[in-house]
Amino acid sequence: MLNIEKLQQKEASILCIGSHPGIIQSMLDFDFHAGKKKPSIIAIIAGGRKYERYFFGKREILIPVFSSVAHIPKNKISEINLFLSLTSARRVLSTTVEILDALPSILGGVIFAENVPEKHSLDLKAFASSKNVFIIGPASVGLVIPEFLKIGAIGGTQSRQLTDAHLFEKGSVAVFSASGGMTNEIINIVTGLDKRISFSLSFGGDRFPITDPKDAFLAAENDSNTKAIIYYGELGGSDEYALAELKKKKK
Questions:
Q1: How far is CA 148 from the centre of its chain?
Q2: How far is the C-alpha of 120 from the C-alpha of 130, rounded, in Å?
Q3: Portion of the chain with pLDDT greater than 90, in percent
């Protein structure tokens, strides 16, 4: 279950499974503009190299790269509490199960790949529940908590997009959508009206999102900073019926 307040009580230490320089740099830009003293991304799983070069502000940094989770040093293993999966759709299930089993401090993460096999998504939902961790996606641009955390491409991949969206000022409006583009668009509409975001996430466009609208609404309801929700629904499906049931049950 996604718990926004619990996330904010921990210093983010993120493992990237696979590499996407644009997304990774945008997360580092967020960290720097949010006033963090060090990057939240502490390791990458990829092949063929020992480090990847990025910028933290004007300073060039090296993020260590490991060929598998088994090669990550024990001190980093115990430190990692979040993940971003940037691997291919067919490898999402095996790599996610592997890291959830290997990382004792893991709270959850985001899956970027789209067109993950439906059975794999359903298996991951059950596995995440058994481990009491959250997974957002597949096909998600991620999760953002202003001033604190950005996992994925959410909010944009350019520094100016992040500052224009006022993602370094805490607010009270939660924004949810399956579509990554609409998630970013609504964030900009809200902040353009001089409101600010408490947190925002994209469920992802695949058939079976692991964190669904019901889960996101409950996370918002349990977040003391969130006073309003803007939800962009999709045609078809039963999500709105599940939300109506929550309303009926006064949840």
A1: 12
A2: 15
A3: 96
- pTM greater than 0.90 (yes/no): yes
Per-residue exposure over 25-51, b if at least 16 CB sit within 10 Å of its own CB, e if not: bbbbbbbbbbebeebbbbbbbbeeeee
- Cβ atoms of 168 and 196 closer than 8 Å: no
Q: Is the pLDDT of residue 236 over 90?
A: no
Contact in structure between 142 and 149 (CB atoms under 8 Å): no
Residues 145-183: pLDDT tens digits?
A: 999 999 999 999 999 999 999 999 999 999 999 999 999
- 208 backbone dihedrals φ, ψ, rounded to 5°: -125, 85
> Rounded to whole angstroms, how far apart are CA atoms 184 and 177?
9
Looking at residue 168, its amino acid is: F
- Beta carbons within 10 angstroms of residue 172's beta carbon: 14
How far is residue 199's CA from residue 187's CA, in Å, rounded to a whole number?
Answer: 10
In tens, the pLDDT along 192-205 reads 999 999 999 999 99
Distance CA 120, CA 155 (A): 27
Instruction: Find the mean pLDDT for residues 24-37.
Output: 97
Please provide the DSSP assignment of 65-129 as one string.
EESSGGGS-HHHHHH--EEEE-S-GGGHHHHHHHHHHH-TT--EEEE--SS--HHHHHHHHHHHH
For β-strands 143-145 and 59-66, DSSP reports them as unpaired
What value does the CA radius of gyration of the chain take, rounded to a whole number of Å? 17
Is the pLDDT confidence value at 80 over 90? yes
